[in-house]
Write the structure tokens for this entry.
Amino acid sequence: MKRLFALIVCLAILIPSVVFAAGTVTVTRKAIVPQYIEQVIFTCVGDASNGSIPNTAITQEIFRYIQGMYLYCVTADPGAVTPDAADVFILNARSEDLLGSADNTTAGNGANLLH
């Protein structure tokens, strides 16, 4: 059986333009079953004025643990203050949306992941 990759993403994009985003994103890793199931957690805090957060990539250190694994699960926990709506994109190195967006500009299965 191929190795599984569990990815929990709480990546909420509250406005279309993230170029000027001042929110923060913290990325952490947790080994559920080492070498078989890894969890990558994105903890996002939107900008106080407009709720935006910056695009965020995982670090090389985290990448070495998940390289060669499969994306198995994506969940979102909006926390105490639920946003109006949010689209989530998970892009690979070739900028392909792993959640199914046809053009990488509109969310596929990540559309309104939080609402």
The two ends are 35 Å apart (CA to CA). The first strand starts at residue 4 and ends at 9.
